[in-house]
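Researcher: Sequence recovery benchmark, item below. Answer with residues only.
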């Protein structure tokens, strides 16, 4: 099973858009609102080498792997690329 994890803020338009994009593809995801946890958010930024939010991860439970997708724009490119491969 694969799902996506979003680290961000519920009041961030890019974070909200990332969630909407995942919903439009009918994909499982978990949104982690980090508004009240700035130190924890900084930890994830440092861990995944990201400067902004959202931080989008693809988690594969079968493979026990985590792939850093990036932000919202990278998520859209990632999903469009995977969608093209599945159809063509």
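Model:
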């Amino acid at each position: 099973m694969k799902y996506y994890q979003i680290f961000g803020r519920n009041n961030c338009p890019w974070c909200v858009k990332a969630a909407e994009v995942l919903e439009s593809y009918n994909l499982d995801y978990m949104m982690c609102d980090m508004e009240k946890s700035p130190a924890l958010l900084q930890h994830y930024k440092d861990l995944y080498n990201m400067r902004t939010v959202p931080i989008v991860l693809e988690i594969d439970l079968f493979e026990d792997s985590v792939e850093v997708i990036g932000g919202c724009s990278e998520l859209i490119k990632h999903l469009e690329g995977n969608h093209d491969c599945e159809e063509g």
